[in-house]
Specification:
heterodimer; A: about 425 residues; mainly beta; 16-stranded antiparallel beta barrel; two-stranded antiparallel sheet; about 10% helix; about 45% strand; B: about 100 residues; mainly alpha; about 0% strand
């Protein structure tokens, strides 16, 4: 990397630090914040084992899911008594067996079909996710968690590969582990934690749409973008943050492709059902894993996000990030998503996204998506018919790319 | 391999010659790890130490897993594994009805 671009990188980092510091100065007061903003629920750590949300649900999270996400058919999910224990259908593995209080179990099975009319072979059906997850509280302050699953993707795919445990480089199945960590909880009721292991990167809106440009370009999705490192997460009454020191992804080798740096976000509850946040990420690798050029590669993303309730049953999520990479000009990525719940369990979603990766420094020619804005739009329907199950259909149209339709059946164990 | 008679015109003998190399525990560099074992680890048997055969390309899988994984035999039923929870859930609903 030349000295000029290094100076530009440092300048970029300075600006990002000022933005983050500025937001910290205006934090009103401390406390937890809602994840399901539509329903005013606060504190991701109450519903999820991960303090920043996603994946494995706690017992409380399953109850909230049953009461707010799944379609209301008029009857209560009555507990069935077996072996002297009461286990509702919404329990792990449909309540087939019980688990000790210290153990959380779950899983996620997702089959997807992709229809791209412009291709010769337009229909593709594939298992998108086959994961089992476990979480054990050993002492009152010590927790262990991990996921194990299977994935099969083509050679060179940006998906799943980075989470491989087994070493098959071809197109057969591999065992994968997206997350595995140990946590030490502290503070009143253990609301703060320090975790070490393979963690979701704390950045931006943590959502399931891993191919959304904002998640893809910042490499912060929950699909396989996790990295090994140490993270501090703290939750207060009106603010929460998580910051992570990234040590690299030790499921990728050789070492030159491991990114090291930091990632973090801070979110503030501005009013009832309105949350504003900032995120920042900077990493350095001896070479870029997805676009190897044999040279040191810096990658930065800094941005803001908002999640707000727009009246009964409607929520708005938005994120805008600046992007900067070695040997490229600055770019940006963002999205705006409106989610309306027609009746409980049935969601209509509209998403607009924009991307400019920035053009290569040696080129003056701007192209769509590289030096020039590329636009995309999603129209989606998601239905949660009963506890554990949801189906989703998306129509995705992106400038310069063929129209595609995606359907998914998801079972949460 | 050339010493064993491998040439461009006799490439069909490659599997057999590899078996022979392994049976004789040939170690070209004398560093204690046999040539075939080096190949299994995606390493160059003609270089001392762990030198990648593939050069500077990312490789995937946990550094702590000793042997290369091969998911071939797993594929046949794994493609349908997503259906297992549907069956589990269906029977559970049936049992409660």
């Amino acid at each position: 990397m030349g000295s000029a671009s290094f100076a530009e990188m440092v300048q970029f980092l300075r600006i990002a630090c000022f933005v983050v510091a500025g937001c910290l100065l205006f934090v009103p007061e401390a406390n937890a914040y809602p994840w399901m903003i539509r329903h005013y629920y606060s504190g991701c750590g109450n519903c999820h084992a991960d303090p920043s949300g996603g994946e494995l649900l706690t017992e409380y999270g399953r109850m909230i899911s049953e009461e707010t996400l799944s379609m209301d058919w008029g009857g209560a999910d009555e507990a069935e008594e077996e072996d002297g224990e009461e286990r509702p259908f919404s329990s792990p593995f449909f309540g087939w067996f019980g688990t000790p209080e210290e153990v959380l179990l779950g899983g996620s099975m997702r089959v997807a079909s992709l229809y791209r009319p412009a291709l010769d072979d337009p229909l593709q059906v594939f298992p998108m996710q086959l994961d089992l997850m476990a979480h054990v509280r050993v002492l009152s302050q010590l927790r262990f968690a991990g996921s194990i699953g299977a994935a099969r993707v083509p050679v060179g795919s940006p998906h799943a590969r980075a989470a491989q445990v087994t070493r098959n480089q071809g197109e057969s199945y591999n065992a994968i582990s997206r997350t595995h960590w140990v946590a030490f909880d502290f503070g009143e009721d253990g609301v703060h934690s320090v975790r070490a292991g393979r963690l979701n990167l704390p950045f931006g809106v943590r959502m399931s749409e891993h191919v959304l440009w904002a998640r893809e370009q910042t490499r912060t999705d929950r699909e396989s973008d996790q990295q090994h490192g140490v993270a501090l997460a703290m939750a207060f009454e009106k603010m929460r943050f998580e910051v992570m020191a990234i040590a690299g992804n030790y499921q990728v080798r050789p070492d030159q492709f491991r990114e090291r740096g930091y990632s973090g976000y801070l979110e503030v509850l501005l009013g009832e059902g309105v949350m504003l946040g900032v995120s920042s990420l900077a990493t350095r690798a001896a070479d870029d894993r997805l676009e190897p050029v044999g040279m040191t590669s810096w990658r930065q993303a800094h941005g803001a996000m908002i999640r707000t309730r727009l009246g009964e049953g409607t929520a708005l999520l938005a994120e805008a990030d600046l992007l900067k990479r070695s040997r490229g000009t600055a770019g940006y990525v963002g999205f705006l998503q409106v989610d309306h719940e027609l009746v409980r369990g049935l969601h209509l979603m509209g998403t607009a996204e924009v991307l400019d990766r920035g053009r290569p420094e040696q080129s003056n020619e701007a192209q769509v998506g590289r030096g020039q804005a590329q636009w995309g739009g999603w129209g989606s329907v998601q239905w949660f018919p009963v506890s554990h199950f949801d189906v989703r259909a998306d129509a995705i149209s992106r400038q310069g790319e063929p129209l595609q339709f995606m359907a998914q059946l998801h079972t949460y164990l | 391999m050339r010493a064993l008679g491998l040439g461009a015109a006799r490439s069909s003998q490659l599997p057999e010659l590899l078996q022979q190399l392994e049976a004789e525990n040939v170690d070209s560099t004398g560093d204690g790890v046999g040539d075939v074992e080096r190949l299994r680890r995606d390493q160059d048997p003609n270089q001392i130490g762990e030198v990648s055969l593939c050069g500077d390309v990312p490789r995937y899988g946990c550094s702590l897993v000793a042997a290369p994984g091969n998911g071939g035999g797993f594929s046949a039923w794994a493609d349908w594994m997503w259906a297992a929870p549907l069956i589990l859930g269906w029977f559970r609903i049936g049992r409660r009805a």
